[in-house]
Amino acid sequence: QVQLVESGGGLVQAGNSLRLSCAASGRTFSTHAMGWFRQAPGKEREFVAAINWSGDSTYYADSVKGRFTISRDNAKNTVYLQMNSLKPEDTAVYYCAAKYYSGSTYANDYSSWGQGTQVTVSS
Predict the structure, then answer these.
(1) Tell me: the pLDDT tens digits for 34-78?
(2) Which helix (H) or strand (E) holds 37?
(3) Which residue from 95, 75, 122, 85 is spatially nearest to 20, judged by alpha carbons?
(4) Residues facing 99 on adjacent strands
(5) CB count, 10 Å around CB of 58?
(6) Cβ burial 76-95 (10 Å sphere, 16+ → b, else e)
(7) Alpha carbon distance 41, 65 (integer Å)
């Protein structure tokens, strides 16, 4: 099972940017699709972005399309989420997740999860 640790969250003003990182351990990282999810207080965990095992295919929720970019560096065992033009509604705890081979937009399909990192966007 892949072990994941997120970092890079913080407090920013609307319109600014953050880059989240997800450091992974485990020799099978490169065979896993990766996803980012987020959860705000009182709301269900929602899909944000996903990337396939090779990094040549990405998927985004409509709410972040054009603003967020997911990428991975398999040599560094790291997945990134570049978050630009942040909005207050992006405020949430962001989680990195791993799923063997093919990706998914469903949280229940992912087998490994990080601890989460808080992103707060002020207006």
Answers:
(1) 999 999 999 999 999 999 988 999 999 999 999 999 999 989 999
(2) strand 32-39
(3) 95
(4) 33
(5) 15
(6) ebbbbbebeebeeebbbbbb
(7) 22
